[in-house]
Structure formats: C-alpha cells, structure tokens
Write a structure and sequence with these properties.
It contains 13 helices and 15 strands. It has 443 residues and is of the alpha/beta class. It has 2 domains: 140 residues, Aspartate Aminotransferase, domain 1 (Alpha-Beta Complex), CATH 3.90.1150.10; 236 residues, 3-Layer(aba) Sandwich (Aspartate Aminotransferase, domain 2), CATH 3.40.640.10. A 7-stranded mixed beta sheet has the order 4-10-9-8-7-5-6, sandwiched between helices. Strand 7, helix 8 and strand 8 form a beta-alpha-beta unit. It is globular, with a radius of gyration of 24 Å. The termini are far apart. The structure holds pyridoxal-5'-phosphate. Pyridoxal-5'-phosphate (PLP) binds next to helix 5.
Length: 443
Amino acid sequence: MKQVRPGGAWFGRVGAGWHRLVGLAWFGNPVNQHQPGPTWPHPAEPVEFAEVSKRIAAVQAPIIPILGEWIRHSPGTISLGQGMVAYGPPPEALAAVPRFLAEPGAHRYGPVEGLPSLVEALAHKLTTENHLDLSRSRVVVSAGGNLAFMNAVLAVADPGDEVILQAPYYFNHEMAVVMAGCRPVVVPTDARYQLQVDAIAAAITPRTRAVVTISPNNPSGAVYPEADLRAVNALCGARGVWHIHDEVYEYFTYGLPHFSPASIPGADAYTISLFSLSKAYGFASWRIGYMTIPESLWMAVNKIQDTLLICPPHVSQAAALGALGAGRAYCDGHISALASVRRHVLARLEAIGDIAEAPSADGALYCLLRVQTPLDSMTLAQRLIREHKVATVPGTAFGLPARRSLGGGGTDGTYLRVSYGALAAETVDEGMERLVRGIRALA
Ligand SMILES: Cc1ncc(COP(=O)(O)O)c(C=O)c1O
C-alpha cells in the first residue's frame, strides 16, 4: 500500500509487522499540487522565527558533546569522561547478524514492544536473575535505557507534575523530565551519596508522580543497600507514586549484591524497572535497553514508543538475542577485568586523600570526586583538559552546585566524575596519573 503525501513524497509503512497491518488513513489534501499556492506580500521588516520551543530551551545542554569540543582543542587528552566499557559485544551477538539479514522480512517494521523471541529471552533473564514475577507485567524492548526512561516519564506524568530525582542525578534523566514538561524535584543524597529516604518522603507533594532511583549509580558509583531500596519502594507504594528504578549497571557491583525492587511482592503494580545491554554487553551503539512495566501502563507505553520509535531496530534485537545466549558469564569476565582497573583508580585517589575523596564508589564505572579547590567544577574540568590533558565530567552536569555544602555530616567540594570503563587499563592508569597531578596543581 502506497500513498502520496502532499508534495509527492512516498508515504506508507509498507510491510509493517502484524500489528501495523491496519489501513493508513488518507493523508491527502484536495489542493492540486500543480497550482501555484497563494502569494503573500513581502514583509517590510525581517520576519523573526522563534528558534526552539521554550520547553526544549529549558533543557540543559548535553555535557558529553561539550567535553568532546574541549578535548578536540587539546589534542592528546585522555578522556575519563564518557561512561562506556572498552569491550564490544560477544561473538554470539555478531554471529546473529548475518543470519538475521538472510531472514525474509528482515527490513520490515516489527512489534512495538520488541521481537517475541527477545522479549521471551529477557523475561527468562528477569525471572531467573532479578527474581521478578512478570505475571502482571510487560517486558518492553527499547532503543536503550534512555528511551525506556522517556517512555516511563511520558506514561506516568503530565506537564507540571513533579518527578523526584536524587542528587547527583544522571543528566539524561533530568533532561527527559524537563523535556516532558515536568518539574524535577531534586533530593540530595548524603555525604556518601546514599539515599535519604526521609528527605524523599518530605519531598512528595500531591503533584509528585514518580521517584527515580539508580543503583549502581551514575555518577557516584554508589550501590544502594537492599534495605534502602525496599524503603523507597514501600514509600512509593504507600503514597501512590511510581517507583522508576534504573538498573542498567546491575552487573557492575564488584562483589556487592544487586537488588531489584520490582521483585518485592506487590511492587510490580507501581514499579518500572529499566535495564540495558549498552554497558554489560558492550552494546552502546546497538541501542538496546528494556523495561518492565505493570500491565496497566502498557497502552500508554505502546502509544509513546510507537510514536518515538515504531519498533526497536531488528538487527540490534537479533544481536541482543545472540548476546543473551552468551549470557552473564560473558559480562562477568569483562567486569572482573574492570574490577582491577577500578582498584587501581581508587588506589591512585588515595594518594590525594588530603584534597580529594570519592566516597561509595562501589559500583558502575564511576567515582565522583569531591575536590578541595576554590575552582568551580566547569573551570576545574576545563583546566584539567587544557593544562593536564585529562578529561572528567564536571559535577554541575549532575545537578551538583559548583561548590556544594552538605552541612552537618559532609564537606564542601567541587565535583568531578571519573569514568574508568572505556579505556585500556594502561591508558586509565596514565589518565589517573595526569588527574592526580592536575588536581594537586589546581587545588
Ligand atoms: C544510569 C543510566 N541509565 C541509562 C543510561 C543510558 O543507557 P542506554 O545506552 O541503554 O540508553 C546510562 C548511560 O550512561 C546511565 O548511566
């Protein structure tokens, strides 16, 4: 079925998956395209166009491209900036690609929620590894954890509603909340970047729709104890707000236990869990994440993802299925190598313990340094790149003030996130040497 858009472009989702085999509404326009359109008098003054919507203008600029620009002007910089792993997908994932390409229908749209075979494999992983009871839930494959988060926010919150984030937050979470027209309510964590459940409870208002937690955490590396996650989840259940829990770093705990709050009996009714293959399986460019949602949210997420994505890319889903075949053992092999990089990084930081500390860096790929320096975090990060050729991410990107006072239990500081996952061990080592030297010089 093909239809012509006004203007003549071919329009139609030819060969859509089964769910799309519905007639397309006529998109035509009775105006004959060959007739000249109406003419308008030339304006005396230049016409001004608003450049972007106010909603998007309010969203913080993505920090990683800004860092990239700084690094480009300082060749030879080692980047401890971006949160990625240095390894790629398992061979099983790559071997699935040519097989997929030979399949009839490889290039067609598919189900919004992902290919049934992948959904089934993920459901098996979620029940066996995360101990989720999926009998009243849906598994939805998405184009990475970021889109899964956007799906979640758009599904549960209206413009003007509040979404509680923990500071430091993951910048794309805050950006998504603002983009959805909602208000991020940022609750500080404690001096060790751990959850302050009483503060979260105090921040809940009649406009609160969701509380967001991330464990293991980006940017702090904190791994939240099961008891705290249970407490936040129970709070959400008691106050009628959604608990959106991001577990994309679930395997990166270096020996500590990982806990999925959606596994708590009854929590499936109000818990949205987010996962990703980007980190653990070295899948960042393939864009495969997934979420579990209560059945009641399915139609909302269906509408959103159908509009934003139509379906997750098939070739990546085929590769993801191959990756799941290799399973957690593949990830664990790489993560145990990363554990030794992490130990080296922490040992290096100990050497400057008098002027910098990184509490609770127990998981993920990060430590969040609190540096004793008069410089604000953008200046510190920029000067480290310019003068010491090492890149880190300034704390302001994560909602931390340029200099933060924790009052009571904590210390003031300027914050920098160090990511140790994306480079070879020797390069990280060299980067840390530069960082330590740079911080000493600039503190
Ligand atoms: C906490 C957290 N959630 C989600 C993501 C996005 O992951 P994905 O590549 O699956 O979109 C990241 C990436 O850095 C992250 O740190």
